[in-house]
Amino acid sequence: MSDPWPYPAQLPPKQEAIRARCFHPTGAFVEFPKKEVEQSIPERLENIVRIHPDRPALKAKNLSWTYDELNQSANRIAHAILNGCTQGTEPIALLLEPGASPVVAMIGVLKAGKTYVPLDPHYPRSRLQFMLQDCRARVVVTDSQNYSFARELAPDTSELINIDKLDSSLPTDDPDSSRSPDSLAYIMYTSGSTGQPKGVMQTDRNVLHEIMNYTNAASICHDDRLLLVSSPSFGDAVRTIYSSLLNGACLCPLNIKERGFGALVDCVRQEKLTVYRSVPTVFRQFVSGLTGREVFPNLRLVYLAGDTVFKKDVELYKKHFADGGILINGLGTTEALTFCWYFIGKETQIDGNNVPVGYEIQDKQVLLINDAGREAGVDGVGQIAVKSRYLSPGYWGRPDLTKSAFMLDPAEAHERIYRTGDMGFRRPDGCLEQRGRKDFQVKIRGYRVEVSEIETVLLTIGSIKEALVVGRKDQSDEARLVAYIVPTCRPAPTVSALRRILSAKLPNYMIPSAFVYLEGLPLSPNGKLDRRALPDPERCRPNLDTPFVAPRTPVETELAQIWAKVLSVEQVGIHDRFFDVGGHSLSATQVVSQVIKQFQIEVPLQSLFESPTVAEMAAVITEHQTRKIAKPELERILVELEFISEEKASQILADAAVTNSTRESDE
Q1: Full-model pTM
Q2: Does the chain have fewer CB atoms within 10 Å around its N or its C terminus?
Q3: How far apart are CA 325 and CA 306, in angstroms?
Q4: Does CATH number 3.40.525.10 belong to domain 441-533?
Q5: Which CATH number is 554-663's, of 3.10.310.50, 1.10.1200.10, 1.10.540.10, 3.50.50.60?
Q6: Are 313 and 283 in contact (CB under 8 A)?
Q7: Diameter of the chain measured on Cα atoms
């Protein structure tokens, strides 16, 4: 690993030519200098506030703040924290609804010299309780909507701060802070192989280095308007939030799970967004609802990260976006942040089905380590490892996990090597291609999932002898989780029962879409588990608590056919619950959009969560059919094709409805 590195740090000429076209037409870009990595995040932000006090900083539903207003709000939160805390960089938990609130709270925590721990209030109670106990946060910042829930989760916490009811007398000036570049900025929990999530730590320096690279590569400037669709508890939100606010740009948070994809289309167009960033799954949902009539003249950059990008995604980008726009495929982890990217223009040709993850970025050397522990070299497949001084300090409270994932580089005293678990292949020019995982970790809708964590929960069920969870591609080439179950006796537990148990302990994205019952797990001749021999899930209706009842009316028949097509099952009974048959939040948008097209009515996405069976949904459809819809309104719905309107979508609960029902033991 100490041999001279053969791959240059700069992009090849063709890649650089595409990247050079990535700029705002106003020419307002200002380079992020390397020296400014050696400061704290609040220092950089406060300088931006001094330069652009009156420029828009946050634009969300029913909220529009300038940089001065954002700074004052964050300062009030910081002073509220300092009033109840001792000095030091102790963790402060954030339990807030997605949107503008967690963004302001994150900054407030940093300004107070503390470390924030973002928690998604829609995760299962037991998971949130573990995170709170593990990070040892004595203060929880929350809002009115989650205040009671926060008190239930942390009854022994010394203080809860409700940002909706802050004392009006709190100062709005910048607090004094001894924060340094080495201070812990956040602890972000990801899926863990031990059966419990693990907290990944990151410092101010690492975050600023990440934003420096992103800013300079994408020429992000104060005239940009960036879309935020990721939850703050998801690593990719870090790039969007800070690349916007640390450059004087405008950040536009949008909760898709609440407002729907129709609102996303409207937001990109109406807010004149210039930078779109999401996981590929959300991007596909976004563009699948476009008719070709929509125009996004301001959108100059589409950045996809968090999962595999396919050739068909590039084709969708070429079809729907302006010729001058650039598409970036990025690769990174919570531990190493971004370390590779690939720039794509309308002229770029993609060979094969998967888009390359591209070339390493500044100060991040990518190694491919073979089984012998040596660099695999050109034409060799190896585990992707990242060598840099800008890596996570490790896992909170887990020196054992830190030691197993990170190693010191004997040739460079200030650099370490992080082994990602991803496998890769390098082309002669240094371009990296991803080739699956070394372990059995999978990516589901952009989330990194340790399947062993799901298996651990399944094996706590007394009626299950063996359990194995794998990631498989569905008919749309999307990854989904499939659980293989060996029951201790017959009858085996139903899928409905398994989902109820899993929903109480795991977030929705970690619940398998399909369950396969086996007499025993397949073994190779030498007695080892043979994953290649696992059967594909059948398309038949799963084993549920409710018996199958065929459709009785034309509406139920058409609706059952829509469900079956979207969920890739042969038949659906009228009393089957949508999520028990394998549905999730994104497939729910597909069902509702098909209902709008098929029945030419407008129904909110929320109706599928409130009426989660074919029979109940059919009653909703029948009720709406009795109401006449004006022709202009109907035409507007048809133009939006498969997505509901912004007005109706504003009340969507999506995954929140599922997890809220979990809290009440309703599912």
Answers
A1: 0.75
A2: N
A3: 21
A4: no
A5: 1.10.1200.10
A6: yes
A7: 75
